[in-house]
Design a protein that fits this description.
Length: 445
């Protein structure tokens, strides 16, 4: 079934966001704790949810002359931040306050104000196997003879939490696992379930959590570039149980910039000969990515965007010979304050060369936290939408992700502005509003 919105159909609607939304976070590290602490800071009126489209964004309805642009959260029934309840798993026992202090993204003063709340969130033991994340040694982990037993334990965690809230969503904010190619075990639900029993090495911990979530009808988002739900077995399970999924790997710093700049070059028919991207970062994510097998997973995820945006097969004169290189360097002194450099070799009229340099001094988790929050809120919305809940993949959430997931045979849209339009038109569609095409001829009649 296609996820393309179709012109202004009236729909069967969206159920209201009644009661508490339980958010189960896998991996309570830098991104997760920055999201949780941030939500609490916003709830207490200590800060604004900058960077969050669900909290700050507006959506135009009708004509430009109608002057109707409500906040997105007033237009679609999203869970209120005050109704969110967090829980999670980690391979270390640190509570969210301790983990946030270790991540050192937020300053001590802010954390001190939030400490009594953050201390109450203690991780449940994780499903972990060092084979999939070489640089970490987990101490707070579940025991089980088979992957099936571990999945059942996660299902028990979900069921217990569900008794305390009205709806549940799961998000992976855990470390990047080693690069895995899809194999036979990933092809069907049946193969996957046999693989769980047989401890198939093709099934990574992130897939055990995802399987547990989708089995329970719980939507699942993936902030890391791991294979996770990007396999037929879990796509089927997502559809079968009306548990929405989306793509993977939060689109935060360098890739965000790429998916803004590349469409601009293409729109103006400027050629690109080379794109060299390098980063330094010193947080735990950087340490994990220092392992070549985890880096490979990240590299694959980051490389895809330019290829799809430039469409070299359509524009061989402009992009056929593009050389794209990505480096990530672990450099502890910087902590979460990543610095990224891009050197872009472009060419214009008659082939004359030019260069563009981008130096982005960003904060990784400050960029990622609002994305994690938005994904959780929008997946919960999708689950309550008659139009969206049984589609499986929510392509309209590509906006947030380095590796969008699509229906089989469909190329992903990486262009941030196409993604933004798709997201907003999907919201208009599920609420029975007219789509906005930007044609605008009617203003000149
Ligand atoms: N910050 C960004 O801008 C950004 C952007 C895109 C993707 N990501 C991805 O998001 C993920 C989280 O990033 P981070 O900076 O918070 O990293 P982090 O290292 O601070 O946090 C990851 C946490 O996951 C835990 N963990 C690892 N395996 C686990 C498992 N099997 N079960 C439960 N917990 C587990 C770790 O102990 C750690 O606490 C990483 O995979 C990263 O690549 C981050």
């Amino acid at each position: 079934m296609s996820t393309e919105p179709t012109g202004g159909l009236k729909t069967t609607g969206v159920a209201p966001a009644k009661g508490k939304l339980g958010v189960m976070v896998v991996g309570l590290g830098a991104v997760a704790t920055t999201m949780i602490a941030g939500v609490e800071a916003v709830r207490r009126g200590l800060a604004k949810p900058i960077g969050s489209l669900t909290q700050m964004g507006t959506i135009r309805l009708g004509k430009r002359t109608d002057n109707q642009s409500p906040l997105i959260k007033d237009f679609v029934p999203l869970a209120d931040l005050n109704d969110i309840v967090f829980t999670g798993w980690d391979i270390f026992e640190d509570n969210v306050y301790e983990s946030a202090a270790h991540a050192a993204v937020l300053d001590k003063e802010t954390l001190a104000k939030l400490k009594p709340y953050l201390e109450t969130i203690k991780p449940m033991p994780a499903v972990f196997d060092q084979y999939y994340v070489k640089r970490l040694h987990g101490t707070h982990v579940k025991q089980g003879k088979t992957k099936r037993e571990l999945a059942d334990q996660v299902i028990e965690d979900i069921r217990a939490f569900r008794k305390t809230v009205d709806r549940v969503v799961m998000i992976w904010c855990g470390s990047t696992e080693i690069f895995l190619e899809p194999t036979a075990v990933h092809l069907s639900i049946q193969n996957f379930e046999k693989g769980l029993e047989a401890n198939d090495p093709g099934i990574a911990p992130s897939q055990i959590y995802a399987y547990a979530a989708l089995s329970e009808g719980v939507p699942f988002a993936n902030g890391a570039p791991n294979l996770t739900v990007d396999i037929p077995a879990l796509v089927c399970l997502s559809k079968k149980n009306a548990a929405p999924i989306c793509g993977k790997d939060f689109k935060t710093g360098q890739t965000l910039m790429k998916t803004v700049l590349a469409p601009a070059f293409k729109a103006r028919m400027l050629g690109v000969k080379g794109w060299f991207s390098t980063n330094i970062l010193g947080n735990r994510d950087g340490e994990v990515l220092d392992d070549p097998q985890s880096f490979k997973t990240k590299e694959e995820s980051k490389l895809g965007s330019l290829e799809y945006i430039f469409q070299p097969e359509l524009y061989p004169d402009l992009y056929k010979d593009l050389y794209h290189k990505i480096r990530i360097n672990y450099y502890p002194p910087r902590g979460d304050e990543k610095e990224a450099w891009d050197n872009i070799d472009i060419f214009g009229w008659l082939g004359y060369p030019m260069q563009l340099k981008v130096n982005f001094l960003c904060r990784d988790s400050i960029l990622a936290a609002p994305i994690a929050l938005d994904l959780v809120l929008f997946l919960d919305l999708a689950k309550r939408s008659a139009d969206l809940k049984s589609l499986g993949i929510q392509e309209w959430l590509s906006f947030y992700l380095k590796s969008p997931q699509t229906a089989e045979g469909l190329y992903p849209e990486h262009d941030l502005f196409i993604q933004s339009m798709k997201l907003k038109n999907t919201l208009r569609h599920i609420m029975g509003e007219d789509l906005i095409t930007h044609l605008g001829l009617e203003y000149y009649d």
